[in-house]
Design brief:
This protein has helices at 45-52, 70-73, 96-106, 111-124, 140-151, 170-185, 197-203, 221-228, 243-251, 273-279, 292-302; strands at residues 5-16, 19-30, 34-38, 60-65, 68-69, 81-84, 158-162, 189-193, 206-211, 214-219, 232-237, 255-259, 262-267, 284-289. The protein is α/β, with parallel strands linked by helices. The protein folds into 2 domains: 5-92 and 149-218, Rossmann fold (3-Layer(aba) Sandwich); 226-302, Alpha-Beta Plaits (2-Layer Sandwich). Strands 6-7-8-3-9-10 form a 6-stranded mixed beta sheet, with helices on both faces. Strands 2-1-4-5 form a 4-stranded antiparallel beta sheet. The longest helix has 16 residues, at 170-185. It is elongated. The mean pLDDT is 92.
Length: 303
């Protein structure tokens, strides 16, 4: 039976020196799915995406892209995907159009198809006015659009996106997320890493949470939040000499985590947040709906 997965990783491991930066990751991404990798800084997100894009060689394990083992087909499989790296890597001596032209030709497009796709993709990301601009004249957002434009020139079935939204304003993040959603509607599979939980929630069919090189959780955003956190979170700060006392009051009935004097209390189905608020009356607190960032925080504080 032909696999319907666009990509499969089997027990991927990557060592840098004696440190296992990625440690036994198993992952299957069906065709047409958008999968978002979440994790704190240093969790291994960039290394994992580099492995999945076949730009980093694993120390152990196997990677299959569209059913082909990368150990067998080698670098040729890279042309089946688009990789938006966390670095620009443009030739500063060439203008915008020339950079795209070289990439399109490297990916095997004919001269006529390259010209056509450059126009189409620049219009799609609304940077058509910058064809003859120098790279150094572009601002950060325009360079991010150019990264994305370059990655889809050859019409890949899969795009791997590393921290495209980092450091951008909200409107700029929304624009790029909208473009990625448009690509998904066209049938592309997307693997995406981000620190923006709001955009992850918009984009993801499933999320995976990476910590210390291990993929700890996978699932739909709503299911992961419900299973790991519940429905609401009470968050509050207290004095250092109050932590032990307040934790002892809360821990008999509620799940919690604390980072120093900041305490997070997780309210699950059937529990009443008002009871927690009564327990900690007098403290500065907030009550809000549970979100993906709470799952990441909880896992960080659990390991």
């Amino acid at each position: 039976m032909v696999s319907k997965n666009i990509i499969e990783a089997r027990s991927l491991v990557k060592y840098f020196g004696s440190q296992a930066v990625i440690n036994g990751v198993h992952l299957e991404i069906p065709e047409g799915e958008s999968f978002v990798v979440l994790g704190s800084k240093g969790a291994g997100k960039t290394t994992l995406l580099g492995l999945l894009a076949n730009f980093i060689t694993p120390s152990a394990g196997d990677l299959f892209i569209q059913g082909q083992n990368t150990k067998v087909v080698g670098e040729a499989v890279r042309k089946k995907l688009g990789y938006i790296m966390d670095k620009d890597l443009f030739d500063q001596q060439l203008n915008v159009e020339e950079n795209l032209w070289i990439y399109a030709r490297y990916m095997g497009l004919s001269s006529s198809e390259a010209r056509k796709r450059i126009v189409e993709c620049m219009r799609f990301f609304e940077i058509a006015d910058y064809q003859e601009s120098s790279i150094e004249s572009l601002n950060t957002f325009e360079k991010r659009c150019l990264r994305a434009c370059r990655a889809i020139l050859h019409k890949p079935k899969l795009i791997i996106v590393d921290e495209l939204l980092s450091g951008l304003g909200l409107l700029e993040q929304n624009f790029l997320t909208d473009r990625l959603l448009d690509l998904k509607k066209q049938g592309l599979s997307i693997i995406f890493s981000t620190d923006s939980m709001m955009e992850a929630d918009r984009l993801a069919d499933r999320v995976g949470i990476l910590s210390a090189g291990k993929l700890l959780l996978e699932g739909s955003p709503s299911k992961i939040i419900e299973n790991e956190i519940g429905f609401e979170v009470v968050e509050f700060d207290c004095r250092e000499d109050e932590v032990e006392y307040l934790v002892s009051k809360i821990s008999s009935s509620y799940e919690y985590r604390n980072r120093g004097t900041k305490i997070y209390v997780y309210i699950r189905s059937g529990q009443d947040s008002r009871n927690v608020l009564d327990m900690i009356s007098g403290e500065e607190m907030s009550l809000r709906r549970a979100r993906l960032s709470d799952v990441v925080t909880k896992l960080e504080l659990s390991h």
